[in-house]
Design goal:
Length: about 425
């Protein structure tokens, strides 16, 4: 679906410098990992709760339950720092309270401080050894740290304690997904949906797994189900649009990306993918507008926005006579996006798929070299850059990259 491009050397340098500091992170599931019941309380209700519990604390500064309840209200409002402060006060008044350690650990999880979350879950578990929620929470923190097998072990414990814990199955599926064990991942999503057929996140995540297995029809069906349950999920529209694009149904893909943008006008990924779909539909004006909007919202899309199809066409088609399939183009650009996200190993997998289809595709070697460079495997990167140059000896960008990297490797260590 995504159109093909070659980065000029200046873009490459900017891209390398910006991605070297990126920490490789697990694949992110964007649909909320919750049971998909309709939220009945609004912000005003939580504000009233906070005021009510604050009044109770004012009357009795040692009211543990009031601190816990206010902490939960803050948590529901997304004020995790304030929630943690209240949970900490409750623990100060009543140490060894497993439930509160668990609540504070969950709040740390939501703030993205996985180490502090794990510390709190570690305190909760010995106090209540059969606390399925604490194992589940610690598993989520381990998964966020990329410790997938440790996460799976904790989900196993949670499920052993509570065999109907559908969210634990869903999260274990995510960890299996991150280990690229897609069959196991799908089996866990199946189990979650057996327990709760209205679990939108499980449909969404299973759709992602089917996509990795390149079964786009099944992926689309799962995104359909997710949207049937949660029609306001912009991410589900984006993912379904991408699956439709991979089936060359660009017009329908545009409709899905447009719907995602209607729901979330600042959804950079939706603009970026719609720009690529417009390009396939030969509407360059709309493609440029969307790519510019994606770049403005998220600088990660900057390199992809500055495509130079003329250079690519000259170098690959006219000089070498190599015909590049749409599938290879799609896989290449999927790898490019993964590379920008810091998911270098996953990007390399996509480039390998491209090379299996077109073994003499210089761009695939070039971007594979870039992913290796970002993994700090400089010699391997240079080898792939040289391979790209061998296949396309007239490409000035490749020449400059090879020359610069070769000189750096030959410098004596300081």
């Amino acid at each position: 679906m995504r159109s093909l491009f070659i980065a000029v050397f200046l873009t490459l340098v900017i891209f390398i410098s910006s991605t070297l500091s990126a920490k490789e992170k697990p694949a992110v599931k964007k649909m909320p990992e919750t049971n998909n019941t309709i939220e009945t309380k609004n912000t005003d209700s939580y504000n009233k709760d906070v005021k009510s519990y604050s009044k109770a604390i004012e009357l009795n500064p040692n009211d543990v339950s009031a601190y816990i309840s206010r902490g939960k209200a803050w948590d529901e409002k997304g004020e995790y720092g304030k929630a943690i402060k209240d949970y900490s006060k409750a623990l100060e008044l009543k140490p060894n309270y497993a439930e509160v350690y668990n609540s504070r650990g969950t709040a740390w999880n939501k703030k993205g401080d996985n180490d502090k979350a794990i510390s709190d879950f570690n305190k909760a578990i010995p106090l209540t050894p059969n606390f399925a929620g604490a194992y589940y929470g610690r598993g989520m923190a381990f998964n966020s740290k990329g410790l997938y097998y440790q996460a799976i072990a904790d989900y196993n414990r949670a499920i052993k304690i509570n065999p109907d814990f559908e969210r634990a199955y869903n999260q274990r599926g995510i960890s299996w997904y991150n280990k690229k064990k897609f069959e196991r991942s799908i089996a866990d999503y199946n189990k979650a949906l057996e327990i709760d057929p209205k679990f939108a996140a499980a449909y969404f995540n299973r759709g992602l797994a089917w996509g990795e297995k390149e079964d786009y029809d099944k992926a689309i069906k799962d995104f359909d189900k997710a949207l049937e349950i949660d029609p306001l999920s912009a991410d589900a529209y984006v993912q379904r649009g991408m699956a439709l694009g991979l089936k060359n149904n660009y017009k329908q893909a545009v409709k899905d990306f447009t719907k995602a943008i209607e729901i979330n006008p600042n959804h950079a990924e939706a603009y970026f993918n719609r720009s690529l779909a417009w390009k396939e539909l030969e509407n360059s004006e709309k493609s440029l507008a969307d790519s510019s909007r994606a770049e403005a919202l998220d600088s990660h899309y900057a390199a992809a926005s500055h495509e130079d199809e003329h250079e690519e066409k000259t170098n690959e088609d006219k000089k070498t006579g190599l015909k590049i399939s749409n599938e290879a183009k799609t896989l290449l650009n999927k790898g490019i996006v993964l590379n920008k996200q810091g998911q270098y190993d996953l990007a390399i997998e996509e480039y390998n798929k491209v090379l299996k289809i077109n073994p003499d595709f210089a761009s695939a070697y070039f971007y594979k070299g870039l992913a290796m460079y970002n993994k700090r495997e400089t010699q391997k990167a240079l080898d792939y850059f040289k391979k790209a140059l061998d296949l396309d000896p007239g490409n000035s960008s490749y020449k400059r990259v090879v020359s610069s990297l070769d000189k750096n490797l030959k410098k004596p260590a300081e």
